[in-house]
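Slides due. Your pick:
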Amino acid sequence: MARIRVGDAEEDVVTREEWPLEKAREALKEETIAVLGYGVQGPGQALNLRDNGFRVIVGQRKGSGSWDRAVADGWVEGETLFEIGEAARRGTVLQYLLSDAGQIACWEEVKARLTPGKCLYFSHGFGVTYRELTGIIPPADVDVVLVAPKGSGLSLRRLFVQGKGVNSSYGVFRDATGRARERAISLGIGVGSAFLFETDFQREVWSDLTGERGILMGAIAGLFEAQFAVLRKNGHSPSEAFNETVEELTQSLMPLVAENGMDWMYRNCSTTAQRGALDWRHRFREAVTPLFDELYESVKTGEEARIVIETCGRDDYRERLGEELDEMANSELWRAGKTLRELRP
């Protein structure tokens, strides 16, 4: 484990150099990894593990679209593809990658297959952290670990195919066998992590829910909508408003930030852009900090978890979700985006 200075603190990180793939395969050579759920994270993690030489099976409800996707990806019914309960019975490591609502619904079925010595793996701390709401209370005689890639399952797979990787956090909730940490890190390397930094289930879910509702998705979507609306209100065309709001950010500036940092990007733009951005960033920070404080408190108290469980458990949730997403897709902002993306060479 390497100890490095990150910002103002020192952190322990695990790199591929000190924990190479060969070490991970050796640590898990006797394990059968059952990936339960083939929706968001499942495909990327399962395929990466398979391609890295681990023994992997998939558990998914037969007849679902995700089952068909698994078949299309080369998983074979009765050999490497099973119903969730059967995959959980066969696996020694159960990667519980169903949605948070799906984990609650299937918990009793999976729990019954958690015999002593097995490893229960999560990529999100939600179910265990909010166990009073979810009912997900792991047995005392199994390892409970976390590996949370800091990116979508799609990105995890794409970068793996390119020979790259995303950063992941890892944590141990319970070490029943004395091997929990070894299992967690080996699985993290196996799914294609670039490096691993340590966390715990609670910190992971608090930061993750804040990020999703904040800068990663909720805040950025709201900022897009606000700026686009102001430009349109002041007579700018949809093309101009979209390009100045979304296209330049996502296609030009954010890749530079990802490669070199925000300060580097500032140093390599016009002096007019530099001055305005340096001045206005303080006002935006001051304006949104109270909102982030409110958001974090809602996550910390479990209010956000309660909303997720209550809302996503409704029978008409998918229908309502479709209506909300259709409303976004049909807004002028994203209709303009669809047209302009088709013009890219």
Summary: The CA atoms of residues 201 and 273 lie 41 Å apart. DSSP finds 17 helices and ten strands in the chain. The chain has a mean pLDDT of 95. The first helix runs from residue 21 to 27.
